[in-house]
Write a structure and sequence with these properties.
It contains 4 helices and 7 strands; from the N terminus they run αβββαβαβββα. The chain is of the alpha/beta class. The chain folds into 2 domains: 69 residues; 131 residues, Glutaredoxin, CATH 3.40.30. Strands 1-2-7-6-4-5-3 form a 7-stranded mixed β-sheet. It is rod-shaped and about 130 Å long. The termini are far apart. This is Putative membrane protein.
Length: 221
C-alpha cells in the first residue's frame, strides 16, 4: 500500500506536468499568432504594392493611349499629307470640337451625309460629313480661293465617283483639301496629280472603319 507521502509526490508531479503542457500550448498559440499576423502583413503589403504597380501601369497605359489618340503622323506617300491615328467613332448629338479643319475623323452624328457622288453648293454639317468618311468616302472641300475652273474639274470627278462628296468649306488654309478618314491632303490646284492618286487610294480604302456601309439614304442637304 502506497504511503501518504508517495501519493502527495505523485499528485504534485501530475500538476507540474499539466502546467508544463499548458505553458507549451500557450507558447504554440503565441507562435501561431505571430506567424499569422506576419503572413497577413506580408500579403497586404504585397497586394498594396501590386495594386500600385497595376494602377500605375494602367495610368501610364491610359496616358500613352491619350497621347496616341492625338498624334499626328506625317507620311511621305503623298507629299504634304497628314495622317491622324486612333480617332473617336462614337455617335453623339450636337456639335463636336475637332482636332483639324476640315475634320477627317472623330465622334460624329449618327446620320451620315449622302456621299454617292454628291456635290453640295452649301457648307455641310461637319458631324454628318465625318460619318461619311467613316463609310470610306473621300470628301473634297474648297474655299473662295479655288478657281471656278478647279471647282468644275473636281465636281466632274466627284459626280462620277461613288463614295465621294464635295462641298464649300471656308475654314481651311488652302484652296482645296482632300479628306478621307484619318487622312488629309491640302492642295492648290485641281490639276495636281496627287488628286487622282488620293481618290484611288482612299475611296473605300484600307483606312475605312466601316467598309461597304451605305453612302445613300443619309442626309441629303
Amino acid at each position: 500500500m502506497a504511503s501518504k507521502g508517495s501519493k502527495t509526490k505523485g499528485a504534485a508531479e501530475r500538476r507540474a506536468k499539466i502546467e508544463e503542457l499548458r505553458r507549451a500550448e500557450k507558447a504554440r498559440e503565441r507562435r501561431y499568432r505571430i506567424i499569422t499576423i506576419t503572413s497577413c502583413t506580408v500579403i497586404v503589403a504585397g497586394l498594396a504594392v501590386g495594386g500600385f504597380f497595376l494602377v500605375d501601369a494602367g495610368n501610364k497605359k491610359e496616358e500613352k493611349a491619350t497621347k496616341v489618340s492625338s498624334s499626328v503622323v506625317k507620311t511621305g506617300e503623298f507629299k504634304g499629307m497628314t495622317t491622324w491615328k486612333n480617332l473617336g467613332r462614337t455617335h453623339v448629338g450636337g456639335s463636336v470640337k475637332y482636332a483639324m479643319s476640315p475634320p477627317v475623323g472623330g465622334n460624329h452624328n449618327q446620320v451620315w451625309q449622302n456621299c454617292d457622288g454628291d456635290v453640295y453648293t452649301k457648307p455641310l454639317t461637319k458631324e454628318n460629313a465625318v460619318h461619311s468618311l467613316e463609310h470610306g468616302a473621300v470628301w473634297v472641300t474648297y474655299n473662295d480661293k479655288a478657281s471656278k475652273e478647279d471647282v468644275a474639274t473636281l465636281k466632274a470627278r466627284v459626280e462620277k465617283t461613288k463614295y465621294s462628296l464635295m462641298s464649300p468649306y471656308e475654314d481651311q488654309s488652302t484652296p482645296i483639301v482632300l479628306n478621307a478618314w484619318g487622312n488629309q491632303l491640302k492642295i492648290q490646284k485641281a490639276s495636281d496629280p496627287r488628286v487622282a492618286a488620293f481618290f484611288k487610294k482612299f475611296v473605300q480604302g484600307k483606312q475605312t472603319p466601316e467598309p461597304n456601309a451605305y453612302c445613300t439614304n443619309g442626309k441629303s442637304s
